[in-house]
Amino acid sequence: MRISVIGCGYLGAVHAACMAKLGHEVVGIDVDERKIEELQAGRAPFFEPGLPELLEEVLLTGRLKFSSSMADAKGAQVHFLCVGTPQRKGEYAADMRYVDAAFHTLLDSIEPGNVVVGKSTVPVGTAARLADELADRHPAAVLAWNPEFLREGFAVKDTLTPDRFVYGLPSGQAGVAAATALDEVYSVPLSAGTPRLVADYSTAELVKAAANSFLATKISFINAMAEVCEVTGADVTVLADAIGMDDRIGRKFLNAGVGFGGGCLPKDIRAFMARAGELGADQALTFLREVDDINVRRRLRVVELTRVLVGGSLLGKRITVLGAAFKPNSDDVRDSPALSIAAQLQLQGADVTVTDPEAIAGAQRRFPELMYEADLTTAMTKADALLLLTEWDEYRAITPESAAAAVSSKNILDGRNVLDPAAWRTAGWNYKGIGRP
Ligand code: UDX
Question: Would you state the CATH architecture of domain 2-199?
Answer without folding.
Answer: 3-Layer(aba) Sandwich (3.40)
